Automatic annotation (TrEMBL):
InterPro entries: Metallo-depent_PP-like. Keywords: Signal. This is Calcineurin-like phosphoesterase domain-containing protein. Residues 1-19 form the signal peptide. It comes from Niveibacterium umoris.
Length: 312
């Protein structure tokens, strides 16, 4: 009798023992000017007060026309590195693709991308006062050894990964054929995406969260006319989502229109209910998305918009 009671007690206790609840922050497309730079620490303070376990900046740490010099890039790196929680950064187009503009300093785009890697992903760990370990594609996939900005980590039932897919045109190039840089990077992106989903399935993850900068124009894809710079990404993403039984959430920036929806469709044109897209706030409206993972809730991942100013 005592043994039966012990077994019943273990069954009753185990769900609570395995329960997990935490929140993280997603933000990006700022700061774009001196006023937003001054507000940036306030944004981090708001996240700290909400007790987030980490934050992810999805790219564009400046405007496309402002200098891409080391001082500008290092300034934002230092802000993220000084955050009281772990932080992760994803490259946006303004800080490498658009650096070839005269107003941005006329830099070589690939040289600036390498600079970002050395500043934001020098080691296999996040930034922040208390960094956590991550896996970098450059360390686990030697065929794509340059892509140390492609990261992945796991927290509880959720697998996380980052992709270097910048806004504008994903550095596709101005010609009819894609640029060499685009082809090489997208080969790495597809590989990292596929490996991430495969690992999530092996590890029985309940959800996958992906961070990138670009709005890949899900609407054009749903209409059957995908943007050429994002077509292969979206086909690969849809294929992986269809093979994965859990939730999938993509966080991105780029168009500065905060929204949360289900824009990815299957091959019949029907929305895939397990998939959500969440675009972060962006200049001129500072804010962040508070994302809560709760294993006891009906929906594992919940997203709450958090504008910095109440009037926004």
């Amino acid at each position: 009798m005592m043994r039966v009671l012990a077994v019943l007690l273990a069954v009753l206790i185990s769900p609570a023992a395995n329960a997990e609840r935490y929140s993280f922050a997603a933000f990006g497309d700022l700061p774009y000017n001196e006023a937003e730079r001054a507000e940036f620490p306030l944004l981090l303070d708001a996240m700290r007060e909400a007790a987030v376990v980490f934050g992810v900046h999805v790219g564009d740490i400046k405007t496309g026309g402002t200098p891409c010099d080391d001082i500008t890039l290092t300034d934002i790196r230092d802000l993220l590195a000084g955050a009281p929680f772990p932080t992760v950064y994803v490259p946006g187009d303004n800080e490498w693709v658009d650096c070839t503009r005269r107003s941005a300093g006329g830099f070589d785009a690939l040289e600036r991308l390498d600079k970002l890697r050395s500043l934001f992903q020098p080691k296999a760990e996040s930034l922040g006062a208390e960094p956590f370990k991550v896996e970098r594609q450059s360390d686990v996939d030697f065929s794509h050894g340059a892509y140390q900005e492609h990261l992945r980590w796991r927290r509880g039932p959720v697998a996380f990964l980052t992709l270097n897919v910048p806004g504008s045109d994903n550095n596709f190039g101005s010609g009819r054929e894609a640029s060499n840089e685009y082809r090489q990077r997208m080969s790495a992106v597809r590989s990292w995406l596929g490996d991430g989903f495969a690992k999530a399935r092996r590890d029985s993850a309940r959800a996958i969260v992906i961070f990138m900068h670009a709005d890949p124009d899900f609407e054009a894809f749903a209409a059957g006319s995908p943007a050429r710079a994002y077509s292969e990404l979206l086909y690969a993403l849809r294929s992986e989502v269809m093979e994965f039984e859990g939730e999938v959430v993509v966080f991105h920036g780029d168009t500065h229109v905060m929204r949360i929806d289900r824009p990815l469709v299957d091959s019949d044109g029907a929305p895939i209910e397990r998939f959500r897209r969440a675009e972060v706030f962006g200049s001129p409206i500072p804010g962040w998305l508070e994302v809560t993972v709760d294993t006891e809730a009906e929906q594992l991942i919940r997203i709450r918009p958090r504008p910095l100013r109440k009037e926004d």
